[in-house]
Structure formats: structure tokens, C-alpha cells
Amino acid sequence: MQAVASDVISREKSISADLSSVWQPLLKALPILADLNRGEILLYRFVSDREAVIVSHALPSSVPPNSPSSRAGERVTPVENPTLFGAWLRRRNLLDFIRVPGGRWNPGEDLAPRVQEIHPAIGGEDGSQGALVIEKTLIEHERHHRRSKLFRIYLRKLVQSALSGDLLGAQNLSTFGEHDGIVLVNPQLRILYASGVATNLYRRVGFNEDLVGQVLTALHSSDEILASEAIDCGRCLEREISVMGRIWIKKALPIVVPDRGFAGWRTWTGPTTRKSGLLPKGSETPEMPKKLAGVFLCIHDATDLRQREQLLRSKSALIQEIHHRVKNNLATVAAILRMQARRVENPEARRILEEAVSRVQSVSTVHEFLSAPESRFINIKDLSNRILRQTIGIPGESEGIVPPDKTIQYHVHGPNVYLPAQQATACALVVNELLQNAVEHAYTHAEVGLVEVELQDLGDNVSITIRDDGVGLPLGFNPRIGGGLGLQIVRTLVQDDLKGHFEMHTENGTAAIVTFPKGRIGGSE
Predict the structure, then answer these.
(1) Secondary structure letter of residue 17 according to DSSP
(2) Where does 419-506 have alpha helices with state H?
(3) Over the stretch 157-186, which tens digit does the pLDDT of each residue have?
(4) Lowest-confidence range among 7-16, 205-214, 369-378, 396-405?
(5) 8 A C-beta contact, residue 394 and residue 498
(6) What is the pLDDT of residue 281?
């Protein structure tokens, strides 16, 4: 069934929620009925002899729908659709040609002729009464009329089975597409009908004989197992089956009908018991025997889709492995630099090497996030937390750049913000440089401090603020041109990579603010 807006779905649920339980199996079967009939399915509930309301509207996946959205909630009167009310009052199936839904004309509305196949029905003990309407374009109606008469008869029986509440488990079936095949078998699992698509599908796996008249076991495709399971449990089933290297998704829909022959099938319009809800008017039979008329097998070739999924999984696994190896290599580089820093006696040289270690670790952290499954986008909040721990250090856990005689706490505030890998790498380096700058310059005369990272999701833009409670900026300091290598790196990354804006000012310490537009979804990794 074609996806519709969530508010429309909620409206349909609220409209149909008060229907008795006998309507629920029919409601769940509408999507697959719309697909197989290649038309829209509308379920009407009659409020009175003068008004009916559409309680559910199923749009087909097998053909383009006529309606742009669900018509659930629309009310109709006898003046607008006299055939609907006439069929309901006489309890007769009718076929009618109309110009527009409900027989009305609205400016700009499609005036293509349509055909309504009306199946009136009477409700159960709750007094609800309704009708099922299959609405098609005139072109689809003519195409359907040219199909096998046997197929059309059994499709009508399937609709009757749904009206009687016997098409169980239909809500668990996937959609039926225009390129899917159909095979109809009798209760003895002998093929009565096979569509052209189904015939071509079986030819792909080496079965070149005429399908009609064959028993399912002769196809060697496990069809008989699926059909037998559906018959035994009395429910619609779906399985994914591998046949000669092809991946097929198969559906089995058992057709249950009244056990009284089909001499009067044209006038029989509903379920077979008072409990299930839709007996023909005037019938006093408390329970009508039922029988299996046959099984519809629907076949979808998912081979190409599964192969693409496998290629994507292989590509994803390869990319994750590359990120994992890059992370390990960067960790090795950081370890070598750290060892070199410990051997250097010059304090300035040691500081420079420690800053280099921190930069390498920041980039390594990004690759660590990317090495995880389903990680094309990185949560900047989690990334900032990790960089803070690496930069400031955690006693007994990790070694940072904070001198041992100082205690600096840190916090990250704001929502989760997800960015593509390229932006995340630039953000990691920016956050790292600004944190190093704060630790190095803000607390030269203090032993205790607080560094905070605040994230803001501004819709199309992201703002990252690194704030400390230190001494603030020196008088006359110009953040656009001043500072050392760290701030130069920040300015370059913000302007060239992030295409954003960078500013610094004194605010009970120093606040460094980076604002930039979000990367597009599906951007470069």
C-alpha cells in the first residue's frame, strides 16, 4: 500500500477504531486486495440511508493510484453516488462508470472515467453496515477484462473471502508490485492459471514447459510446501526462497468460500456467519459451511535487490575496516610522538610534541567512530566528550595535557548533532585546538578551572561554543589574525573546510564560537 502522511493514517485509525472486531480482518486485507485488483479499495460505512463515510482507503502499489492521498473521512450522499446506495439497499454487486470520485466535479480535478465495482455487505451484532468498492481507471478496467476469465473469477472469490473475514494474516504480507507474478492453484495444488510474468520467472530457473496443468511438486521450487502450510493454518503466508540461484519472495493467499457451489456467486456478497458479520440480507443461516477454493501464489524476484544489498554490506564492511586500520595507524603515530616527547628535555619542544599527539588523537577518534557499523554520520556531542577526555585527561585512566598541579573539570551541553565524516573531522580538530588553547592560556595563575562545550542545533546551521572561566583574552587581542599555530589551524578549518564563522570574546573568561552550515545528507565521507 502506498505510504500516506502520518496524519492521514491517524485519521483512518480513528475513523475505523469504533468498528466491531468483525471488520478488522477485512481492514487488514485491503492493501493486498488493492494490489491484486490493481485499483483503489474504499471501505464505506453507512451512517444512514442518506449518508456513508469512507472508513478506509487503500492505494495500490501495482499501478499508479488515482487519488493523491487517502480519502478516509470523506462523506457521500445518494445524490453524489446513487449507484453505491442502490447496490447497498438491494444487496447486489454492481459495476458502474463514473467521472470522478463520488460523482462530483471540483476545479482542477482529474476527469478521467473510472469504474466502480461495488460489493455491499451487512454488519454484525454491532449494527454496522458497509460496502467495499474497487475503483479503477477505465484503462485498468479494460486490461483486467482482457485477463483470463478464470483468474477474474478467483480474484472475485478472494474478495469474497476477505469480506467474510477469512483472509487472515494479510497484514503481514509485503506489497505486490507490477513486475510480480501470479500463480493460481486448486486445493490439489494443480496450477489453474499463471500470469505471463510468472511464466517468465520460472523460465529463468529452467522450467520451460507450460505451467497450467502442472502440479506444484513438478516445479521443484518449494511452492507446494508454502501452499500446504497456508492451507493447513488457514492464513496468508510469506517466505523468501532460493531457487536455482534466484531469490524469490513468495506469498500464499488461501481462498475460503461458502461451501454451496458457485451458481449464485454473483449475488453472494459477504461473510458466511452472523459472527463474522456480512450475511446476505434475509439469510437466517446461523453458520454456513466453508471450503477451500484454491490458493493464490504471488512471486517477487528479489535477486537484484539482494545482490545490491550484499554489495552494500561488503562495501560498508570494507570501509569500516579501512577506518579501523587508519585509527590503529594514527594511534601508533601518537604513541611514537608521545615517547619522543618524554625523551625531549626542552620544555617548548615537549609542548609542541604533546600538541601534535593531541591533534593526531582527535583525527584518530573520528576514524574510531567511523569504524563502527552504520556510522556515516557522527554525533558531535559524543565526539566532543571523547576529545575532552583525551585533552584534559582522566586521573588513572588517560593522560592529557593538563599539568599535574591543576584540576580542570569539563562539561558538554546541548543536543545530539549528527554530521558527515568530513565535517566531523574538521570539528574534531577545531574542538581539540580550542581546548588546548584554553588549557594552555586560561589558567596560568589558577589551579582549578571549568571548560565547557556547548552545542546548538540551529536548523540549517550548527554552533559550537568552547567556554572557560579563566583570565580572558589579552587587551587588544584580535582573534582574526592573532594567536599561534592552534588558532591559525582553527581559522583555516572553519573558513575553508566548514565554510563557517569563527569569533572569540571575553565572557567571564573566554568564549570561542564556531558557526557553520550543516553538511548535506549523503555528502562525502
Answers:
(1) T
(2) 421-441, 485-492
(3) 999 888 888 899 999 999 998 889 999 999
(4) 7-16
(5) no
(6) 39
State percent of the chain over pLDDT 90: 22
Apex CA 367: angle with CA 362 and CA 371, to 5°?
150
How far is the C-alpha of 154 from the C-alpha of 180, rounded, in Å? 18
- Beta-strand ranges (E) seen in 169-315 are 181-185, 191-194, 237-243, 246-258, 290-301
Q: What is the DSSP letter of 273?
A: B
Q: What is the pTM of this model?
A: 0.61
> Letter for the amino acid at 28?
K
For 519, which DSSP code?
Answer: P
Q: How far is the C-alpha of 117 from the C-alpha of 389, rounded, in Å?
A: 69
Q: Is 147 left (phi over 0), alpha (psi -120 to 50) or beta?
A: beta
pLDDT band at 403 (very low <50, low <70, confident <90, very high): low
pLDDT per residue as tens digits for the range 178-233: 889 999 999 999 999 999 999 999 998 888 889 999 999 988 888 899 999 999 99
Query: What are the grid coordinates assigned to 437, written together?
Result: 588553547
Q: How many residues can be counted in the chain?
A: 525
Contacts of 524 (CB under 8 A, 6+ apart): 420, 421, 422
Higher pLDDT, 122 or 503: 503
Tell which residue, 443, 472, 466, has the closest CA to residue 453: 466
List, in sequence order, every beta strand (DSSP E) within 40-139. 40-48, 51-58, 75-76, 94-98, 114-121, 130-137
Q: Which residue has the cell 516445479?
A: 219
Strand partners, 512: 466, 504
Percent of the chain as helix, strand, coil, to the nearest 5? 40, 25, 35
What is the 3-state secondary structure of 291-342? EEEEEEEEEEECHHHHHHHHHHHHHHHHHHHHHHHHHHHHHHHHHHHHHHHH
Which three three-digit cell numbers place residue 287?
Answer: 453458520
CA distance 121 to 97: 21
Terminal alpha carbon distance of the chain = 34
